[in-house]
Amino acid sequence: SKICVVRTVDLEDRARRPRVAGHLILRRRTRRTWCAARVLVALSVAVSECCYFLFNLFKTAFASSSSREAMAQSNSSDGFLSQPKGFSTKAIHVGQDPEQWNSMAVVPPISMSTTFKQHGPGQHAGFEYGRSGNPTRDVLERCIASLDNGRFGLTFSSGLGATTTIITMLQNGDHIVAGDDLYGGTNRLLRNVALKMGIEVDFVDLTNMQLVEQAIKPNTRLFWMETPTNPLLKVVDIRAVSEIAHKHPGIVVVVDNTFLSSYLQRPLDLGADVVMYSLTKYMNGHSDVIMGAMVTNDEAVYERLKYLQNAAGIVPSPFDCYLVNRSLKTLALRMERHKSNSLAIARFLETHPKVERVLHPGLPSHPQHELAKRQTYGHSGIMSFYIRGGLEESSNFLKALHVFTLAESLGGYESLAELPSVMTHASVPLQQRQELGITDGLVRLSVGLEDVDDLIADLKQALDKA
Ligand SMILES: Cc1ncc(COP(=O)(O)O)c(C=O)c1O
């Protein structure tokens, strides 16, 4: 149709000439031009039909190759989804193009400037003020979004900063359905801060779909879930919960994907609206940055959160963005090692007489092992176990560790151990802890990248002293 328009304009041009050349010439030329136009129209129809045919041919070929890929997805040797190709290539290249910098730097530079020169008033070159946007942050946000197969990414000064910004989308009188087993800080934020803003929160066992259905109210605006949950490692069916929530227009489903990282689980592909991260953990993986992020495909949600990122000002430093961007380059390698180390440890603990029960989604004994295999590309280095006895035994065990460090947090290259009831989850009310099973005998491990034999030997000698 574009060709036709061009010819019509041409025709009009030519039609003007006879005023100079005379009536006869005008008629002959007009007839010739009409013929040419008809031939062109016929040609363009033939070409467009040809293109349509080729497009369909490619579409069918592509669809069958992606369905082959989808079928191949459950075929990885450990039973978990097998990784589609390209994750590490994206982690290394998306957003990093050297040609975006005058220097052609291969490693994106750290841009510390808080303000950016404008060509004229209001005519900036993409950046105005460091809170509203920064080149180093921009590189990271683009890379993070691509790893979750998302269109938009935003980063924040901490994981809880990302959560706060997401909650700030809500209004007085809105209702949140949250998982009952969340990071203690998220529980505290929802219970003590969101409630004071007039936002209602219900903590629900999201592994029970009947309870999920029943929890929805006319004013429900947000679903907040972690999977696997913290510290009990329950696995929530993201697709099923998203489908139930989305039967009610206006509900945004958020998944805190901190425990698995975008390498091991991609919630947007499963129907969630927003993925949230404490980048502090696996995504950075070196225990030297506090930062958070969110990724979405929903442009309206992104625009709202981008506005709030600037308006509330919960932004990260360019130096930290540089560090996390660097860390993503080895995410796949690190997660593979966390995966193999933690499974070996889970198997060892399961056979130890001083261990009552091991919670690890990679073990067939885990209640949602089959769901974990359907939904994720594997398990990370986080696991929990119940030591026989109570506070005395768990404290003796934790104090006797040498290679594992007794500390809060998780997801770094170093192995950590902690007691959730006293440490990370002390802010969860005692009654909720008791109902959930966060007892003084529940120990959480973040298995790092050390040699696995050294880790097992360390656990063995500490259990002997428990
Ligand atoms: C699952 C999970 N989500 C969110 C957070 C909060 O992140 P940050 O410490 O970066 O604020 C944490 C912190 O431990 C966490 O474990």
From TrEMBL:
GO terms for cellular component: cytoplasm. Its EC number is 4.4.1.1. Pathway: Amino-acid biosynthesis; L-cysteine biosynthesis; L-cysteine from L-homocysteine and L-serine: step 2/2. Its cofactor is pyridoxal 5'-phosphate. One of its GO terms (molecular function) is pyridoxal phosphate binding. The modification N6-(pyridoxal phosphate)lysine is found at K281. One of its GO terms (biological process) is transsulfuration. Keywords: Amino-acid biosynthesis, Cysteine biosynthesis, Membrane, Pyridoxal phosphate, Transmembrane, Transmembrane helix. CDD domains: CGS_like. InterPro entries: Cys/Met-Metab_PyrdxlP-dep_enz, Cys_met_metab_PP, PyrdxlP-dep_Trfase, PyrdxlP-dep_Trfase_major, PyrdxlP-dep_Trfase_small. The keyword Glycosyltransferase does not apply. The chain crosses the membrane at residues 35-55. Belongs to the trans-sulfuration enzymes family. This is cystathionine gamma-lyase. It comes from Anopheles merus (Mosquito).
